[in-house]
Amino acid sequence: MIVPPPVKRGDAVRVIAPSSPFDPDALAKGLAVLSGRLGLVPRLREDVGARRGYLAGDDARRIEEWREAVADPEARAIFCARGGYGAMRLLPEVDPAPLLERPKLLVGFSDVTALHAPLNRAGLATLHGPVVTQLGRAPEDALAHLEALLAGSAPRAGAWEVPAPGAGLVAARTIRPGRAAGPLLGGTLAILAHLQGTPFAPRLDGAILFLEDVGEKPYQIDRYLTHLRLAGALDGIAGLAVGQLSRCDDAGVLAADVVREAALALGVPAVEGLPAGHEDANFALPLGARATLVAPAPGEEGPPRLLFDGWLARGSA
What we know:
Rossmann fold; Glucose Oxidase, domain 1; six-stranded mixed β-sheet; 22% strand
């Protein structure tokens, strides 16, 4: 797995809109965070704010924007303006080869899962993190974590230590105790389920699977998990790390209960309540890089946590 080089203050980055159109005010606030708090130099196409129904312009505009961002010799990262829907439509035209040859970091989440998956599958690590329109609402601790991940400046956590910003994340609780190591893969559950049966789905055998979602009712969460199970996608995963399930409870049924039942049936170490997903406090995770999942049993020392070992190495994960 290729981990792109660090992104530091003063570096140029591209901002693209591969999915849905966005609120211009939210983008402006996010760009101010990129250039001010993070010290980066964002570059955008003039037509980044294009709209075509539920898409940020037609497919031709969005794939041309993607190719320009990938080819930009000065840009060290590609930040996505918003999720929503639309990135999946671009996949037949997304060639991972240029990014493998000259690696740069893709940053985004939600619908951007459709771009993370084939890049991770091809051998490039990416960053599941805030989209630009979310940055203006992000708390300072999430921004500090993102900055440390971008720059690769976090120290490694000791055996029982709470990881420093950029070194890992603490979960709320253990679902099933144990310890696992492997590449960290995943993203938004609905997108992962819809990628099954295509050549763009990530290979999850031996991986720590990260899942989050928003606005999906418990029966829909069940449907996606069942789809993944029936497709064989969950066979051989090493562990399960569950993030935010935002606005997913319905009629007295908790989405977390649905996921817990599935996790226990898988029989792998599992944790829940990672602060990553569709909330304002969306802490970034390095997809594709090697990670360690620690799910303590009752009485064992330390919190449930996910450690970003491969990302900190900034080499082969």
